[in-house]
Design goal:
The chain is of the alpha+beta class and 99 residues long. The protein contains two helices and five strands, in the order E-H-E-E-H-E-E. The structure holds zinc ion (ZN).
């Protein structure tokens, strides 16, 4: 297994995981529950991480590289201030349209 993606936003990591999923790449999510209350670990160590099998690493990385151009950005909901991945057209929390 190799680490291909990490982000402090679990939402983004899940988004990437879905992208890989739709490309038939199986991924493993690590550190999912370490984000808060991780004590004295460095913040970077507690980011959720996506790991894929060796044979899928190159494909996964190219998918992630393409995605980085636009959908790695986030937007903030005008209604509830929730952070959303750019790929979302509506707020995942309150379901209001992106403005
Ligand atoms: Zn919202």
């Amino acid at each position: 297994m190799e680490l291909v993606y990490s982000n402090d936003q679990l939402l983004m990591v899940n988004h990437v995981r879905n992208l890989l999923d739709s490309a038939y790449i199986e991924s493993e999510l690590r550190n999912e529950f370490l984000g808060s209350g991780a004590g004295d670990l460095a913040p970077l160590d507690t980011w959720p991480e996506l790991w894929v099998a060796e044979e899928d690493v190159e494909k996964a990385k190219s998918i992630i590289a393409n995605m980085d151009n636009e959908s790695a950005l986030v937007w903030y909901c005008q209604h509830c201030d929730e952070e959303n991945p750019a790929a979302f057209d509506i707020c995942w929390q309150c379901e209001k349209a992106k403005e």
